[in-house]
Design brief:
With 280 residues, this protein is an alpha/beta fold. Helix content is 37%, strand content 20%. Strand 8 and strand 9 form a beta hairpin. It starts with a strand and ends with a strand. The structure holds adenosine monophosphate.
């Protein structure tokens, strides 16, 4: 497995594979890898000849008071996980390699980033789209793998690829959870023991919503109320948002019909966690 830090070497390597007629997968990550990332790599491994994982904590997608500096990083550990998963290449650039002097270009979108995480983190998706666009140009892969854990991000990347004619297939992968149901996340490492215990409330509140929908509940407002009530039973939980939106355009809906995204963001202590369910 190679670990490359420059755009030129990485692009040359991938082009070499493409010239040999090999299929290439890209798994974009910010590192501090866990089973969630690993599930993406394993799926990519099964479906492609070569697998590239990018590890880059992208400063452009963090707001001024967010956790860019403290975001966990451990390249040695990540390299071990990638090696185990059969990854062929890690692209691990410095910030200066991705954003040199006089960087002035951005990729942005209307409508889909307005609500949910885009409302709480105004510049976040502009940063995500810009870095993902750059990665798609640097690594001309056939397929890119994204987790449903970041459902709004997945919807935005899918839209961006269609709108801007990127020649890449976007594969969405299911959320991997801890045994007690908490969605795996690099940010779970911020939680104290007590916070970690209480963090299961996110998944539990979504479970209750799904149960109600399965039993015939059709009103989005009622579904939000069920989730909010459950979250409010947890002393350490502070709600950022509880939303029921169309998975296609990430706009609020009144009735549960079509493909629906139920998405929540909740602070457990100081740590902001997200989770969701997609109802088809
Ligand atoms: P991140 O390193 O947090 O930017 O995540 C990189 C990719 O891994 C994104 O596509 C995430 O949606 C995906 N991912 C993160 N956590 C999980 C999880 N628990 N299950 C599935 N995919 C995940």
């Amino acid at each position: 497995m190679d670990i490359l830090g420059t755009v030129r070497e990485t692009r040359d390597k991938v082009k070499e594979w493409k010239a040999q007629g090999l299929s290439v997968a890209l798994v974009p990550t910010m590192g501090y890898l866990h089973e969630g990332h690993r599930s993406l790599m394993e799926r990519a491994r099964k479906e492609n000849d070569k697998v590239v994982v990018s590890i880059f904590v992208n400063p452009m997608q963090f707001g001024p008071n967010e956790d860019y500096e403290s975001y966990p990083r451990d390249l040695d550990r990540d390299a071990g996980i990638c090696r185990d998963a059969g990854v062929d290449l890690i692209f691990h650039p410095e910030v200066s390699e991705m954003y040199g002097d006089n960087f002035h270009s951005f990729v942005d979108m209307t409508v889909l980033p307005e609500k949910l995480c885009g409302a709480s983190r105004p510049i976040h998706f502009k940063g995500v789209q810009t870095v993902v666009s750059k990665l798609f140009h640097i690594i001309p892969a056939d397929r890119a793998y994204f987790g449903q854990k970041d459902a709004q991000q997945l919807a935005i990347i899918r839209r961006m690829v269609i709108d801007l004619n990127f020649d890449i297939e976007i594969i969405g992968c299911p959320i991997i959870r801890e045994e007690d149901g908490l969605a795996k996340s690099s940010r779970n490492t911020y939680l104290s023991k007590e916070e970690r215990k209480q963090a299961v409330i996110l998944n539990q509140s979504l479970e209750e919503a799904v149960k109600a929908i399965d039993a015939g509940e059709k009103e989005a407002a009622k579904v939000r109320e069920i989730i909010t009530d459950k979250l409010n039973t947890c002393p350490l939980a502070r709600i950022d948002y509880v939303e029921v939106v169309s998975f296609d355009n990430i706009q609020p809906i009144e009735e549960i019909e079509g493909s629906v995204l139920i998405a929540i963001a909740v602070y457990i202590g100081k740590t902001r966690l997200i989770d969701n369910r997609i109802i088809m």
